[in-house]
Amino acid sequence: MDKIQKNDDVIVLTGKDKGRRGVVRQCIDSKYVVVDGVNVAKKATKPNPANGITGGIIDKLMPIHVSNVALFNVAAGKADRVGFKDVDGKKVRVFKSNGEVVKG
Predict the structure, then answer these.
(1) N or C: which end of the chain has fewer CB within 10 A?
(2) Residue 35 CB-half CA count within 13 A
(3) What is the average pLDDT across 66-71?
(4) Contact 53, 88 (CB under 8 A)
(5) What does pTM read for this prediction?
């Protein structure tokens, strides 16, 4: 079980998008995540009429390392670290600051 998973609400800790919040769209190799609206790059594409693709410059979401993001704790209103706890025989993620179980 990873500390950051798909559909988690995260906040960026470092880099050009520091302070931005978003939802994890995809996890790559448990070291990188793709977050909506974070680390967006411009990519030039050629037109392909057979597939209905128009050419031009598009925005592409690029992966960001998990060490540069943290889960957003809604109760505390800030980024928080995550730990693991055994509840009713199941391993669950909990916030370090207040011990609440992470929803999701």
Answers:
(1) N
(2) 27
(3) 96
(4) no
(5) 0.85
